Amino acid sequence: MSKLQTLRGVIRELRYSLPDRTLKDNIAFRYIMNQYRKYRTTDQQICKAQEEMDFIANTYLCYLRSSRLSQEIHDEFHGKGERSIEDTARMVGFKLPHDPK
Amino acid sequence: MFLCEIKFFSLTNENGSSDFEKTTRNRFYKNTGILKSDDKFEITLDQRKLKTPKGNLFLVEAEPLALAVATEWHSQKNKIIQSKMHLTTLCNTVQDNPNNLTKLDIVQYIVNYLDTDTILFQGNENDDLMKLQITEWDPVIAWFNERFKVHLKKSVQMDVPPVSEQDKATLSRHLMSYNFAAVNGFMYGVDTLKSVILTLAATERYMSPEKAVLLSRLEEEYQTGHWGRVEWAHDLNQQELQSRLAAVVLFVYFNSQSYKSQQKNKV
């Protein structure tokens, strides 16, 4: 994944998870943009640091995305109280006797 | 069969929702921010300051870590679900130290975990799985031996002697060079993956957290390939482990020496 794709991914995840309408004033967003600008201008000598930043950015992306997905799966399947017979049947791919085939 | 399914679902839901009610609070703040005081950072929820479960003022040393914690709190919807906020949890554990562990205790725990490291014990009952383990796990063991100058050997028949005392001492020395917070992070990672080797492979940036989680679930992945995948068990498990491990990698990184020295160079 290219560095730009990673950055886009992180921003997309922030948009998903944060209640703000715009990220412009968000402190985390501003910090990330500053870091990206700073490391873009890094010369070859500290190229290693640049790779390091890319790894950490990808790790943060993984953190945001996996946290969101695990919550989504949890919300879909757990903690909703008792399901109706129809819902349960649909969940395991069955139909009730009076449903159309 | 059909009735059985319904019962199963309703049972888990009953337990799930009662725990859910007990451990969550409604979101009581609108904005989150960070505040710098001396060398450390605090988290603010509107005008309040975040505190740890023991009632201490919540403090972290690295600015990006503080921002990530603030983002965790900011991303809560109507309910605050603290069990999913792994970075906050790690910071709390380090600051409150509820089990009164010393750094040496934790390092010994981690080093002794090597004796039962997941990827050192390969199953030979199934040829395909065996091949998969050899192609996926063996290179990681080789990298680990090279990187930390140790001589770990995998076991196929449960007959291999445990890791030698000398290797344990070598690894202890390496882990003791990290600070208390980072060592706590390693422990969290080891408990997540059931593998010291994979945890260190991720924190050393040898492989991504996704890959490390995949390798720790290698047999499960193999079996789901055969028998089918269930979203609310396998996918949930995978995503949860990934978010835990990614939190560990970030936490160790932000608490490690190299990062701080880099920060000081900043104007």
UniProtKB/TrEMBL annotation, chain A:
InterPro entries documented for this protein: FMC1_homologue
Superkingdom of the organism of origin: Eukaryota
Sequence similarity: Belongs to the FMC1 family.
Name this polypeptide is given: Protein FMC1 homolog
Source organism phylogeny: Eukaryota, Metazoa, Ecdysozoa, Arthropoda, Hexapoda
UniProtKB/TrEMBL annotation, chain B:
Source domain of life: Eukaryota
Keyword Chaperone: yes
Coiled coil: none
Subcellular localization, as worded in the UniProt entry: Mitochondrion
Keywords (A to Z) from UniProt: Chaperone, Mitochondrion, Transit peptide
InterPro entries (alphabetical): ATP12_ATP_synth-F1-assembly, ATP12_ATP_synth-F1-assembly_N, ATP12_ortho_dom_sf
A Pfam family that the UniProt record links to this protein: ATP12
GO CC list: mitochondrion
UniProt family annotation: Belongs to the ATP12 family.
Listed name of the protein: ATP synthase mitochondrial F1 complex assembly factor 2
Originating species: Hypothenemus hampei (Coffee berry borer)
